[in-house]
Specification:
The protein is of the alpha+beta class. About 45% of the residues lie in helices and about 25% in strands. The protein is built from seven helices and six strands. A six-stranded mixed beta sheet has the order 2-1-6-5-4-3. Strand 1 (about 30-40) and strand 2 (about 45) form a beta hairpin. Helix 2 (about 20-30) packs antiparallel against helix 3 and helix 5 (about 140-160) packs antiparallel against helix 6. The longest helix is centred in the C-terminal third of the chain and has 24 residues, at about 140-160. It is globular.
């Protein structure tokens, strides 16, 4: 790429939506370095040939992929692109409906003979988005699991604070309010004022 920020949207759209096998191969070979790597929640590729195979399977599994580039950020000093995309898959062998999701793609570039080549692609997704890509009926269960994680975090903070194991975090009332809110017992302003009045 001569102008990474300007060109990357077209590159991503081609990789994710083309039905032409020759165009897909040409795009991977044109924009990825031979020793490029791909890190994705479901796979890890260690060469350009492996990346091509991953994209070929992706196009075969979801021939009707829809993708929209939401934003592109380019750090010239680090030679890194960060691209936010909205994507909706249509995996033919997964019978469950899907709502699609958001993905942040981080691309490490390397300048060779005046052109920028991708040396590392990292596809970063939130668990809610990952489930949304493949099985949106499970989104409520995923949300509940994440809320449970928050509850356990606040419970841990409250317990450690109570028993005095808080050497790394001093001062304040760490844990209790967050624990109550995570458990669904949010305290109102009136409750707090009553509590403070009783202490006086």
């Amino acid at each position: 790429m001569q102008d990474p920020k300007k060109e990357i949207s077209g590159v991503i759209r081609t990789l994710c939506t083309t039905r032409d096998a020759n165009q897909l191969q040409a795009t991977v070979e044109k924009y990825f370095a031979p020793d490029a790597k791909l890190l994705h929640p479901l796979c890890k590729a260690n060469s350009r040939n492996e990346i091509l195979g991953a994209f070929q399977w992706y196009r075969l599994a979801s021939p009707e992929t829809q993708i929209k580039v939401l934003s592109v950020m380019y750090d010239n000093d680090l030679n890194v692109l960060v691209v936010e995309v909205q994507e909706k898959l249509n995996v033919w062998f997964v019978p469950l409906p899907n709502e699609g999701g958001r993905m942040v793609v981080r691309l490490q570039l390397k300048k060779i003979n005046g052109l920028h080549y991708i040396t590392l692609e990292e596809d970063l997704t939130h668990p809610m988005d990952q489930i949304g890509f493949l099985a949106s009926p499970f989104l409520p269960l995923t949300a509940m699991c994440l809320r449970l994680g928050c509850l356990l975090s606040n419970l841990g903070a409250c317990v450690f604070r109570t028993v005095g194991l808080n050497s790394g975090l001093r001062g304040g009332t760490v844990g209790y309010d967050g624990l109550m809110e995570a458990a669904g017992f949010a305290r109102t302003a009136g409750d707090k004022s009553n509590g403070s009045a009783s202490k006086e």
